[in-house]
Amino acid sequence: MISTRGRYALRVMLDLAEQNSGGFVPLSEIAQRQEISIKYLELILKTLVQHGLLKGHRGKGGGYKLTRAPEDYTVGEILELTEGTLASIACLAPGAEECPRQAHCRTLPMWRRFDAMVHDFFFGMTLRDLMDEERQAKDSASD
Questions:
Q1: Ranges of H-type helices in 51-126
Q2: What global pTM score does this model have?
Q3: How many angstroms separate the CA atoms of 70 and 53, rounded?
Q4: Axis crossing angle, helix 27-34 with helix 38-50, rounded to the nearest 10
Q5: Domain residue spans in the chain?
Q6: For 118-142, what is each residue's pLDDT tens digit?
């Protein structure tokens, strides 16, 4: 299950991608548009800045902006950064100790396939894809 932190991080990244100004977007504007408290948003943005997904600038004219084009961010990288592993079971998480039952676990192949589907789904989708999906939905609604 994806936590609030992961969902909010994705919303913030998408919000910044949609602003497309090239300039810094003030924290207060992001918080207002996304209806997220500034305090909670600061924690999420700090992580995104520390890992190079965003650039932050303090002071007048400050705020946040993407460091890459929307098509260069995958949903998977954003979620993994904020959620940690997306592995469905502990023994498949990166760095997990090898399970003593692994050699004869009858459900392990199923969990591996499931994790591969989740990985391929999230890492195969970009911020640009989300922006395009929203645009297509709006266009269909107006027809």
A1: 75-83, 108-123
A2: 0.87
A3: 11
A4: 120
A5: 4-142
A6: 999 999 999 999 999 876 766 677 6
